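Usage

Read records sequentially. Each one opens with the input sequence:
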Amino acid sequence: MPYARAGQVIGLLGGSFDPAHQGHVHITKAALVRFGLDRVWWLVSPGNPLKTRGPAPLDHRIAHARALIDHPRVTVTDVEARLGTRYTATTIAKLQQLYPGVRFVWLMGADNLAQFHLWQDWQKIISRVPVGVLARPGDRIAARLSLAARLYRGHRLTGREAALLGRADPPAWAFVNLPMSQISSTAIRSAGNWNRPLVVTPSAPN
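and closes with the structure output:
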């Protein structure tokens, strides 16, 4: 399990990372700055309950992710496999038990906010931790009109307030627009480039 001390603000970026790519690196570095985070943990999941097709082997995905991002404030983890959790709400609850005094922030792309209401116990997630949303191309309008955005519009931090997200009491969320690449894990798999370990160049820390 990764190390964290009481008082730290840790961003949690979950997903199958099948495979991890520069888009993940980009939003991670942006989240560190825009949401005032001390660290970000990538939670490489055993499998996504919303997807019918199984991902590549977990150890393969983790090795690729670690080769991709070499940053002193980012940790690639298999937390969900270690905890035996399948759903985000359960993972967050267990992490809060294991790390008393640590402030967690759930990170997601705007595409996930658009379907957030389909997640298991999604309202428990937003009641437990602040949520930081990073815009992806083509998903901004759908995200802002989503059920979650409408129900919790009064709890949104705007503008410079987003930098205080990690210290905000839930429910709280922030949405930031970023110039982002169109690259996606789906496109990489469709191109047939994820049947073998990829040669990657680690990203430089910011």
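Summary fields computed downstream for this record:
- The radius of gyration is 16 Å.
- Residues 187-192, 196-201 have pLDDT under 50 and may be disordered.
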